[in-house]
Amino acid sequence: MRSVCVLAIVLVLLALLGPWLAPFDPTQINIPNRLSPPSAEWLLGTDALGRDILSRLLHGARWSLGLAFVISVIGLCIGTLGGLLAAQGGKLADWVVMRTTDTFLAFPDLVAAVVIAGVLGAGTSSLIFALTVTGWMRYARVARGIGLSLQTRGYVVQARLAGLSPLAIARWHYLPSLLPSLTVVWTGMFARAILGISALGFLGFGVQPPMPEWGTMLLDARIHMRSTPLQMIWPGLAVVFCVLAINLAGDALRDALAEQENTQ
Questions:
Q1: Which residue, 89, 114, 123, 207, is most buried by CB atoms nearer than 10 A?
Q2: How far are the Cα atoms of 65, 136, 162, 251 from residue 58, in angstroms, in the given order?
Q3: Number of C-alpha atoms within 13 angstroms, CB side, residue 29?
Q4: Using the 8-state DSSP alphabet, how is residue 172 labeled?
């Protein structure tokens, strides 16, 4: 768990302090130094407009990681509420919520997000909406499954007989049991959100230029992929590293929670 905590701290610091660690302005155009290779001045080289790639990567971390955090948290809240509604709201509410999740899950996440973003138009708000709409269902299914399993527990039955409202029961009895499992799901959805943001950015539906974001950096570098492949390699490695690190953290968290349950 120590490595997980260290990793989480590193990613948070990267998103928060990246702009202050950047050696140059990420939007400053410097045509005489365009497509420069890595050097003592330009540690990762420059892009087609002479902008420092390292500075753009550090600034892009705030967009890629920050937006992924916002999207995954919104999806967590919506999905948890939907799952609890399905578990506590009776057969009609359960049927409506589950059929809605089935409908969304019938379409590939990225394809649905591209369609939604294409209809709404390119931009950050459209990106957040598209990825949130296509990502809340997994939280809802987990919350519903655990909620249904808790309905027959003695303390839940006693709380219901004592006259507690469904909201109070959900607050004091359901959420503490849901949080560990939903946290593990959230780590996976956080990583998926990073991939979704980068994919939409590469397709031109994400954060718009000149703001640096890893997906848009890949989009800008594709023209020079053969002559200067490092332009695409650096943001690609940033996406791969963050997604891999978050998934490993999620696996470690899942194993730690499972070990804790076995010892109780």
A1: 207
A2: 11, 29, 54, 26
A3: 6
A4: I
DSSP category for residue 32: G
CATH homologous superfamily of 51-263: MetI-like (1.10.3720.10)
Calpha distance 174→95 (Å, rounded): 20
Q: Look at the pTM and tell me if it is higher than 0.85.
A: yes
What is the tens place of the pLDDT at every residue in 120-170?
A: 888 889 999 999 999 899 999 999 998 888 887 877 788 777 877 777 887
For the chain, percent helix, then strand, then coil, each to nearest 5? 75, 0, 25
- Per-residue pLDDT tens over the stretch 29-69: 888 889 888 988 888 999 989 999 999 999 988 888 889 99
Separation CA 239–CA 247 (nearest Å): 12
Structure tokens at 13: 């610091």
Listed in sequence order, the residues at least 6 apart from 25 whose beta carbon sits closer than 8 Å to its beta carbon are 55
Domain boundaries, the chain: 51-263
Which DSSP state fits 197? H
SS3 of 52, please?
Answer: strand
Q: Nearest Cα to 199, choosing from 260, 230, 243, 162?
A: 243
Neighbours of 197 (CB within 10 A): 30
Residue 108: C-alpha distances to residues 60, 185, 196, 239 (Å): 26, 18, 12, 20
Q: Is 221 helix (H, G, I), strand (E, B) or coil?
A: helix
